[in-house]
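From the shared-data thread, chain only:
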Amino acid sequence: MTHRGFTLVELLIALVVGLGVAGGALLLADAARTALTVEPATIDAVRRLHAGVEAITAAISGAGGDRGIGSDSGTVWNGLPAVQLIAESGSTFVGIVSTRAVVGGRGQLVEDQPGPAGSLTLAPDRGRCPATQVVCGFRDGDIALIFDGRGHFDVFVIGAVSASLSRITPRAPLAEAYRTGAWVVEAREERLVLTPQPDGSRTLTRITAAGAREPIVDGVVQLTLEPWARAAPPGLFANDVSQFAQYGLPPPAPAAPDPEGIFATGSHCMAARDAEVVQSTLLPLGGDGGGLAPLTIAELNDGPWCPHEDAPARFDADWFRVARIDVHLHVEALPAEVRGAAGRWFSRGGTASQDAPRWVRDRSISFSVGTGR
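Structure, as tokens:
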């Protein structure tokens, strides 16, 4: 520099230095933007995957709960399938219905229910009904499960309790009236389903039997569930003293009549008799080396039906044989600015440019959960 100003060379040097400083600042700004958007979105996607795995695993593996509740042989809890899956458009399973018993109220009917909306009179003795201030440990507002060992079952909210009469009354009518001997236990039932959001995304949501909704995982792109079943039908045994089934409903005693007059003596939806020999109505499935076979939606909608084909709340007996569920869970980054165009990496397109370092690609995980059956 002279007393007359900067020379051309000095101006060029200053310009180069200035451009270098500006470029460095832009790089720092870009790195900061990445740190503030991409990294948190990546961490959040992984966190939501983990939350989904935990919720789904708990719903499937915890279903059934205390299977010892019921008769002296401990098999009455097999009176219902603990896990059932919800189909979407008749082609893919996308939701879970999980039922489990919990420590609390339990009792057995000592009178026929007068009608689906009628009260349930429970046994007052300590062997079948806990000695408490209320009826068998039940309180108004509890969730209860009633089942009879022949395939009838309902999950309901208790609307009233009468300690003086040893009765509980459902808040809403049951699917049908239950007979003496049916068991009532405190229970939890939940549904895990995908619920749509205003922005077009879907949320994995837990819905309780009382109707409460709890969002579990946002930004779910896909949830698929593939049930695997015991390939062999259950081994059955029954005489006048005891009944046994490897899984599913224990067969009736040989001379036991069907209260509804639908099945032959000593039979029900899962057990038939050939002379004095009890046989399963379930057919063998083509299994893998581990004795399991995949179950399709069609196979879970073709019978045999429990408790019977004309029952208001019938279900396919093949649900009893489900032993494992394979799960595929797929989530997306929530901010649109880190998702690129829909295609290979993004199920739902976002606003990000083709600048891969700023992308947060969809994340997915596949895992298997045993039902404990």
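DSSP finds one helix and 19 strands in the chain.
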